[in-house]
């Protein structure tokens, strides 16, 4: 599938007054919370405003502009999911057939999961595969094949389909499945199936493609400083390696708002699959963090009763936010590269949603006014999965969560344990703050049918191991 015309990826009718106002507001928020950011707003099919502020690369003195490419991180997962659903349309994949039918070499420590996991499980983060297993399998076009071979030593953190736990590994497996059924390597498949049909000129998957444009570098730490590396290993591609601009991310969002049609009328995805991707598939145990449910790729929420779907992304010092309010034909994309990006996102999206859709985001979390009674013994212990250990200890009648990272994540983010006191919120639900963020984040304790205790935090289910 190729693009043969110069149809714009998304129509633009910039509103000068709105653009100036958002530019001033973004600059104000970037000065308070971040290093650099770029924003675009699309309403009724047209981009009405673009703005950028701060640094693309503070160390090199390169300013962010609306043409700067940022890493969109895990928003990439919805792009990979879109291509997967297009292959379902074509009969090359089935949502509920074992992926072992097309990828018989898949092995996990739990052989039953490897044999029974389906495309639906991968798309909804319910496979149980330990999702934060990262491995650099090189720059070759066989990187996904090599990654899948290494999963034979990777554990399963929950029974198949029993809960939702964010799974990067599952989307790398999905990328390999797409390669197998099409015979096309994942990066090239994204170009053929999405970038070209949507007329995208600044969107890519490889660092050498980003270097053709003004590219943002991530910034980490407090105060934020340039990150030591630009991006993740190539094997993370289907889960999070696409780079783009807010305008071109909105062209992707418009594909879904327009029922699977590109701007030039090319059908990329069926209306049926567009709708299926936005249907709730599984509840999110921590419904306060991102969303209440997950669809097929998208996460799903409501703001003031209005339907919202979207995705976030986080790489090495870069954070991305995409929200679509389909009933109001509104889509907003913010790409950032350091600082308290969550506070920046909340302030902007709440104001924009109120102006264009008359709705407000869910209010920020706050601990209970009076501490709730609880028995610390119900929660104390060690909870662990790949790359992360959570130790819950009692201190002065309260609870403290100590987060210890390992593996590649620790190398990038720092391996020193971080203590995070927990405050009561609701029975079984506590709130805490990360050192780099001002907002309260939820920590949900829950139990599966088999009796295993879990913490759901950061969209991930971490089982109690001791």
Automatic annotation (TrEMBL):
Which intervals hold domain Beta-lactamase-related? 24-343
**InterPro entries the UniProt entry points to:** Beta-lactam-related, Beta-lactam/transpept-like, Diverse_Enzym_Activities
Tell me the protein's name.
Beta-lactamase family protein
Which species is listed as the source?
Catenulispora pinistramenti
């Amino acid at each position: 599938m190729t693009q043969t015309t110069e149809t714009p990826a998304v129509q633009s009718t910039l509103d000068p007054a709105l653009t100036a106002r958002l530019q001033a507001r973004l600059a104000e928020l970037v000065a308070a919370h971040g290093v650099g950011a770029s924003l675009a707003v699309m309403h009724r099919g047209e981009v009405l405003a673009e703005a950028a502020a701060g640094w693309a690369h503070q160390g090199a003195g390169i300013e962010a502009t609306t043409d700067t490419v940022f890493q969109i991180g895990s928003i990439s997962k919805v792009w990979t999911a879109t291509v997967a659903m297009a292959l379902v349309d074509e009969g090359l994949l089935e949502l509920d057939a074992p992926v072992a039918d097309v990828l018989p070499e898949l092995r996990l420590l739990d052989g039953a999961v490897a044999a029974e996991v389906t495309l639906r499980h991968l798309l909804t983060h319910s496979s149980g595969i330990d999702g934060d297993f990262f491995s650099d399998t090189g720059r070759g076009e066989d990187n996904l094949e090599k990654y899948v071979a290494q999963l034979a030593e990777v554990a399963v953190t929950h029974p198949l389909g029993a809960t939702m736990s964010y799974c990067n590994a599952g989307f790398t497996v999905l990328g390999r499945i797409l390669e197998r059924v099409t015979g096309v390597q994942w990066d090239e498949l994204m170009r053929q199936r999405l970038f070209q049909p949507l007329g995208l000129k600044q969107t890519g998957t490889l660092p050498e493609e980003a270097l053709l444009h003004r590219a943002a570098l991530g910034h980490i730490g407090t105060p934020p400083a340039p990150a030591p590396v630009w991006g993740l290993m190539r094997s993370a591609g289907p889960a999070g390696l696409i780079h783009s601009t807010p305008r071109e991310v909105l062209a992707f969002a418009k594909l879904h708002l327009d029922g699977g049609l590109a701007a030039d009328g090319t059908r990329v995805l069926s209306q049926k699959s567009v709708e299926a991707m936005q249907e709730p598939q599984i509840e999110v145990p921590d419904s306060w963090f991102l969303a209440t449910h997950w669809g097929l790729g998208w996460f799903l929420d409501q703001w003031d009763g209005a339907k919202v779907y979207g995705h976030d992304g986080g790489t090495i010092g870069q954070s991305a936010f995409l929200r679509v309010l389909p009933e109001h034909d509104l889509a907003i994309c913010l790409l950032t590269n350091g600082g308290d990006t969550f506070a920046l996102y909340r302030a902007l999206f709440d104001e924009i949603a109120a102006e264009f859709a008359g709705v407000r985001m869910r209010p920020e979390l706050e601990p209970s006014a009076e501490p709730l009674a609880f028995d610390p013994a119900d929660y104390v212990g060690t909870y662990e999965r790949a790359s992360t250990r959570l130790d819950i200890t009692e201190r002065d009648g309260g609870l403290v969560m100590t987060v210890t990272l390992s593996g590649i994540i620790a190398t990038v983010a720092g391996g020193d344990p971080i203590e995070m006191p927990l405050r009561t919120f609701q029975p079984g639900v506590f709130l805490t703050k990360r050192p780099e963020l001002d907002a309260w984040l939820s920590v949900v304790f829950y139990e599966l049918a088999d009796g295993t205790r879990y913490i759901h935090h950061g969209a991930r289910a971490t089982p109690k191991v001791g």
